[in-house]
């Protein structure tokens, strides 16, 4: 069992706590022992009465989905003389909500005094409020070992991310800072490492010599889901590409780390992103944006984005973005990485697709070898490869076949995996300060061009696969 920790969630009344944090924590406790107390805090006093029920409900729901594994049950039985209750029951019995303004140093002092063991301050707050709380924390005597966990977006641009990093560095050392990107907690993303590095047939082709193009796509069928307050000032580029998609790119493109640990893995992620830049350097050529109009997805009818509640259409927020970048390392010389993410599309697609260079025809065998790809499905974890063979019927004609490897889903929800690192004090799966700034730097020219309205805002019908004119290999490539 790890040392006792109190997870102090600031902004605990928000959607994130209920939808992602508590279920993630429950999935973690179903598989690993942690002595954790949860304290929720926020300005909204109405959350207090229902708080314990909220925590209990999330825990029970997740317990059904993630039954406690047998090894854990045995271990608990051995401990049961001292305490009959499970870690989850103890957590539910001890949790509470404190109504407080965390931007006030006195209130923060009281919140920290309520924590037992090492406090983990979890900022489930918008960037502007996070910055204010950090300013208040600088005036507080923060207990030794306190960890800070910060939700994305980390700042609103490179400059604000740098200022926030400086502020945080004055509060606790970097190894106690956890900038959250839950994609790094997805087993499907982490599995890319094993797939790349533990397979003799894949490792040698994982470079520009064999790979012609890489596409990383996160298409969602969900629309705005009532999140205008956050999303309308972010858009697809900042919400997904600036953070999650660049992290996936880094895992795909990094050099093999000598060890998978907080130093080596994060150094190699940083190396990739330090060397990632727009494909041609021209943000208008290398990126495109679009916004959905009314349409139907399955049995749901969506209004146009511009008419969604809370949206200011004059902001011209994009709900679909595509950016082409290059990774300026020898391994990826001249290989375009096309990054795409959008909402309200006809089909959910989370995948990395590596397109292999064509092979020459085989004189004496009919047909030209077709495009061969390695597709990593980041939703299911499945891996799919095309193989060209000479066909069953006529052995002198080429045919295309497919190899698919299926994978079981991970034990932990992505937030469970990320929380595991936080509760253990291991920052391997969190974003390092330099990387948080660098990710803004990569997309900043595009943000600026879109703010200046240099790039047209295209339209696509909700439920379609994007604007009809968006064909071709990716922006800047056709
Ligand atoms: C979040 C974004 O970080 O990731 C959402 O803010 C997006 O807009 C979500 O829907 C996607 O994550 P997942 O785990 O649901 O694929």
Automatic annotation (TrEMBL):
- List, as start-end ranges, the regions of compositional bias called Gly residues: 469-478
This one is known as Glucose-6-phosphate 1-dehydrogenase
Q: Where is this region: Disordered?
A: 62-88, 457-478
Q: What keywords are assigned to this protein?
A: Carbohydrate metabolism, Glucose metabolism, NADP, Oxidoreductase
Pathway it belongs to? Carbohydrate degradation; pentose phosphate pathway; D-ribulose 5-phosphate from D-glucose 6-phosphate (oxidative stage): step 1/3
Query: What species is given as this protein's source?
Result: Labedella gwakjiensis
- Which Gene Ontology BP terms does the record give? glucose metabolic process; pentose-phosphate shunt, oxidative branch
Q: What are the transmembrane regions?
A: none
Residue ranges of the Glucose-6-phosphate dehydrogenase NAD-binding domain? 9-191
**Origin organism lineage:** Bacteria, Bacillati, Actinomycetota, Actinomycetes, Micrococcales
**Glucose-6-phosphate dehydrogenase C-terminal domain span:** 195-468
EC number(s) of the enzyme?
1.1.1.49
